[in-house]
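4.2 Preliminary Data

To establish feasibility before requesting continued support, the project team ran the inverse folding procedure on a target of 315 residues. The structure was first converted into the token representation described in Section 3, and no sequence information of any kind was made available to the design step. The complete token record follows.
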């Protein structure tokens, strides 16, 4: 039986209907879907930004590309946005949705660091989150030469990147660092169990990310391993105390709605600070796909305003 679904925002529904249908995500279509990438130059046009390409070592010695973007001419120690991209943990690269952190670069004169973590199914288990953590450790250790204020490192990510951000933040807490000033989780992919009401509402399309696609992503990462660490699937974490201030947003009309709201509720239950927004009629990734839509503009502004308030406290 198909469950009823919350109505889409009317403007977003119209824009979504105009998109060509994408193939369902599976092992056969993954190579094709991986080809859809935006180069960094598409986001840099018209912005006064210095760019630097770096390579860092993962915990197992693998080389990981890391990009730095910095306001041109900035000579003061700046806040840092450490950005993790989306793509269901099976696709995407460090430039995906780069306009989101670049907007923060311009508004807050921040340095953006963005990492290519390894993707499933070629990499699995804790490899992805450990790659992200290795990048964070490297950025914190090289803060002085990067012109970054180590007391103002913000970790942020969308979708799979949001889930990896949450897992990495748990790792940083449990390993005693690096210090994280805040985490921004944008429609994060947090729970491999894929069994919430909102997951059941979006088993299949039309949607930008479905329960079936989500199941493929998680199978690719977990490789049938019954022992799932909370750093990989953060919803499993038994303790959400002592986390940095957290911003979570999601849409009412998307598969991750319930696991995201539950994560915020558990942070509050542990005495932590979290701000949660469930955007009415928003589907998965709506503000990334259609940033010009009215609801998208409100969501982006609300997220940025929260970050601005936090950074004003850490100056």
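Position-by-position output of the design step:
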């Amino acid at each position: 039986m198909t469950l009823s679904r919350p109505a889409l925002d009317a403007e977003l529904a119209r824009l979504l209907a105009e998109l060509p249908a994408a193939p369902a995500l599976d092992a056969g279509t993954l190579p094709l879907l991986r080809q859809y990438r935006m180069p960094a130059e598409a986001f840099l046009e018209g912005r006064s930004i210095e760019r630097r390409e770096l390579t860092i070592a993962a915990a197992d010695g693998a080389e990981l590309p890391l990009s730095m973007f910095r306001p041109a001419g900035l000579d003061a120690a700046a806040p840092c946005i450490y950005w993790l991209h989306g793509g269901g943990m099976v696709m995407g690269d460090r430039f995906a949705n780069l306009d989101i952190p670049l907007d923060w670069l311009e508004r807050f004169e921040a340095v953006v660091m963005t990492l290519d973590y390894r993707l499933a199914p070629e990499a699995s288990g804790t490899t992805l989150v450990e790659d992200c953590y290795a990048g964070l450790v490297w950025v914190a250790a090289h803060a002085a030469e990067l012109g970054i204020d180590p007391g103002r490192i913000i970790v942020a990510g969308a979708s799979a990147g949001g889930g990896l951000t949450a897992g990495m933040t748990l790792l940083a807490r449990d390993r005693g660092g690096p210090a994280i000033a805040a985490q921004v989780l944008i429609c994060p992919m947090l729970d491999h169990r894929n069994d919430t009401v909102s997951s059941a509402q979006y088993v299949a399309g039309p949607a930008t990310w479905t329960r079936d696609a989500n199941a493929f992503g998680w199978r690719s990462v977990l490789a049938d391993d019954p022992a799932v660490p909370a750093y990989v699937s953060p919803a499993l974490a038994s303790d959400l105390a002592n986390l940095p201030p957290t911003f979570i947003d999601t849409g009412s009309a998307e598969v991750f709605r319930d696991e995201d709201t539950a994560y915020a509720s558990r942070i509050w239950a542990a005495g932590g600070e979290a701000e949660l927004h469930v955007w009415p009629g928003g589907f998965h990734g709506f503000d990334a796909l259609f940033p010009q839509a009215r609801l998208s503009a409100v969501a982006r502004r609300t997220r940025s305003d929260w970050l601005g308030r936090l950074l004003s406290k850490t100056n």
